[in-house]
Specification:
The structure holds two protein chains of two kinds. Chain A has 29 helices and 13 strands. By secondary structure, chain A is α/β, with parallel strands linked by helices. In chain A, the strands form three sheets. A five-stranded mixed β-sheet of chain A has the order 5-1-6-13-7. Chain A has a five-stranded mixed β-sheet with strand order 10-9-11-8-12, sandwiched between helices. A three-stranded antiparallel β-sheet of chain A has the order 2-3-4. In chain A, helix 10 packs across helix 16 and helix 16 runs antiparallel to helix 18. The longest helix of chain A has about 40 residues. Chain A is elongated, with a radius of gyration of 35 Å. By secondary structure, chain B is of the alpha/beta class. Helix content of chain B is about 40%, strand content about 25%. Chain B contains eleven helices and eleven strands. In chain B, helix 3 crosses helix 9. In chain B, about 40% of the residues are buried. The N terminus of chain B is likely disordered. Classes of the chains: A alpha/beta, B alpha/beta. At the A-B interface, helix 4, helix 12, helix 16, helix 19 and helix 20 of A face helix 1, helix 5, strand 6, helix 6 and strand 11 of B.
Chain lengths: ~750, ~280
Amino acid sequence: MATTAKKMSMMQLTLVVAVNMMGSGIIMLPTNMAKVGAISLLSWIVTALGSMAIAYGFAQAGLFNQRRGGMAAYAEDAYGKDGYFLTFLLYFVSLAIGNVAIAISAVGYLAGFFPGMAATPIATCLSVIGLIWLTTLANFGGPSVTGKIGAVTVWGVIVPVAGLSLIGWFWFKGDVFSHAWNPQGMPLLEGMGSSIALTLWAFLGMESAAQNSDAVENPKRDVPLACMLGTLGAAVVYVLSTTVIQGIVPNEELAKSTGPFALAYAKMFNPTIGSIIMALAVAACLGSLLGWQFTIAQTAKTAAADRFFPAIFSKENRLGAPIAGMVIMAVVQTLMAFSTISPSLSEQFSALVNLAVVTNVIPYIISLSALVVMMKKAEVPARTYKLNVTVMVVAVLYSTYAIYASGKDAVLGGTIVLALTYILYGFIAPRFMTGATAEAGLRVPARAAQAAAVLAVLVCGAALMPRPAHAQIVEPGGKLTIGYHADARPFSFDNESGKPTGYAIELCQKVVEIAKAEVGLSDEQVSWVRVTTENRLALLREGKVKLLCGEPVTLATRKQVSFSIPIFQGGVGALVRADAPAGLTKALTERPGTSGPLWRGTPTEQVLQTQTIAVVSGTPTEKVVAERLAKLQLASKLAPVKDYAQGLQAVVDRKANVFFADRSILLDAVKRNPSFADLKLVDRRFSVAPVAIALARGNEDARLAVDRALSRIYATEGFRGAYTKWFGEPDADTVTFFRLSALPE
Amino acid sequence: MIARLLLLAAAAAFALPAAAQATLEKIRKTGVITLGYIEGAAPFSYADTNGEPQGYSVELCRTVAEAIAAQLGRPQLKTSWVKLTVQNRIEAVQKRRVDLECSTTTWTLARQSQVDFSLMTFVDGASVLTKADEPARRLADFGGKRIAVMRGTTTERVLRQALGQNMTAAEVVTINAREEGLALLREGKVDGFASDRTALIGAVVMRRAEGDLFRLLDEDFSIEQYALMLPRGDADFRLAVNRPLARLYRTREIERIYARWLGPLGPPSMLLSATYFIQGLSE
């Protein structure tokens, strides 16, 4: 807000602070809080108190130190130049992360109009990136217009949210709220701690509440008080609006929404009003984002002028816009959007908020803790000193708790940034060495800092960077060895050139293609190895082979290996001649009745002749057939054959009526050999024997990667063609089988 | 300096790998198997008037618990039931607060990065409820017609996707509650109401008088596979859970369990019958 020559009263300043604090940070909160339950509202109590302490602390600090740099300058007072740099860089990074989070909020509300934008994690990510670049490019024309837009559009959030906190109570239903109170049955303390990072997110920016010190009569008294009360005012609006919404929108719906406030208004009035609110929220986010993109570039420019940042950030175009810096920051934000990609929009929002809070709060801790030194230097009276120290301790303790509450992932990310700042600063520090030693506070030698940073990065980096969104089939740089049977037509066999080919091989090759795209696997890292029935399981167990391309799934084998989702239904099938009597086919496909006697005159009785059943002796099928024959309402005699060729020929030559064998073999034979064109497979599967890709036990990530790849493959157009190539057109049961086996994301 | 301490503390915290436990070992030692269920998801998982967990998924878990007791040679194995919610059930399994979760969790790849799943226990499909005399038989026949769906559900998302894929220009009418959808359909304001098949059947079965008014499309435009959730990385436990399930499917005893809990919904759908069949793995 523009300062006026006329002085403001403290109440007016309070109002200014409150309005400045409220922004688009609130609009996604109800969804994430609903996931925990209305009990998360208790977090507001903790956050409100903590934020008031922080705001007060910064206001006090601002009275002692008006140097350019804000928080960073406070840190410098106690910790020297590297304190300045650390605070500055972390804060800077948090702004960038915050921008991505604002962009996600905008996408969440835009998805109310264009559901496609948030339909999948990739769509969400791309939409976010689109908004980031849009708002960056819009700033290329310089600061004249864009900064002002944000100040106007923010009312599009403040009015509905504040409005809801007042009027929403007429639509508030007690039972909806009580239902939403504690769906997870959390203990009270856990409930209070559950949304600390989220609620703090709504307050971030409180450090700039103290910018208007020259607008009031008595800054020393009024500014800290206005900051605290303004924060409290904003907190009241937040608490009321997020509480009342839990009594308007049922918890389950709220938790799934990507535009909670719009949903509330739609429920209160009608969908049109909801759409208006949605549009206002989008405008507010975009306006805010426009402003922040510029701010962040300006901040980088200033830092470059102070020689903390590379000079490229200070290059401006004719209109005064630091374009190079803006582009670099847009790229950084794009990378952050990718690295936090999550199964749902609200999860990605949550991940970003946690990271933003951690990187924002560490500077709070550093700069607020400097108050002690600042006050000593200013020789402040004992009473003020005690009060400020108390407030500061509360603020720092709360901030530390907020870091803890942000969760492991965010702290890991924040720690990496922290470590990197030391590496960076190690190179910049020599610019500021003057030979004079620092006066107060710690002075960390640049080299030791660098060593610590490298160590920390190595320890943490192995666990985090670069974090792929999905489980990988093999570590980056690892080898992928695939085992296959060379004599298992049509699943896997060697062709004339000795290269592996077959249905299973084709599927495995497709899986490898997908892995190549995701992990960046190169051809040299993939090798195909022949295995035998005797050594296949051992090779898998010992890790000499990573995937076994085609293995029948049985419970016994599961003791030794793990399986992907199946690649073929399998099972024993029955082959008959195309001109077989209908009664025979019916008898074969009829399931045994669960009860009831067999009456004369039923279709099965019509097949009076004894049927000759061929089966290859010594195969598991022989046992299956022996069991089944008793149940089939058929007079039959078993005629074992030596091998599959004999069995097929027997049916062709009318020496046998039915040939039982594994379906894959029967389908393959019928497909390949024109002399078998008169044979057909009965639809029924007489046993359950799926085939899948086997992996070593305990290799959960690789198994997930294979399952994901197969699920995607089954959904593509090309898969039907690949199946038909080896087995002929899939029957209805096969289509159902693959539909059931494919898993959704 | 504070920052350095934070750095070292964080580094130490994450260098420790999570210790993997053998669930079967734990069950054998403690003599207790801990099962999770949720309330309010009848007929799959709910609490009866005595507070006892009941339901289709709950009975499947009881069968699994008996089998595990037999496998471990502990006929006196105690079963401890923990009430979970839809929001916390995944985390509960991840954190091993329960050994096995028995409700209505859909098996998805995203979840597979956090937990593991048993063989599928049920398949629900999203379908469209229409008036009995509605000529449209498949989703693709709904061009120019109106379909109601509950706002903000996965069904809404999948319906739009399916319509897009079929290039069917149907008007999607979003509603807030199932009652609304049925009312709109009854009054002819929409031509179809899309939701989960079990929910639709349940809603219609509740109103016997209207049973003949409505009909479900044969087609499922999306399917959801339910499975029991168990901790990730424990292949022995997963096998111990899958073995009794496979036996139920193989011997077709599952039909008895189905009839007891899901019988009122009608016979198993074609998809579900197929699911039972293809998972009847042999030993």
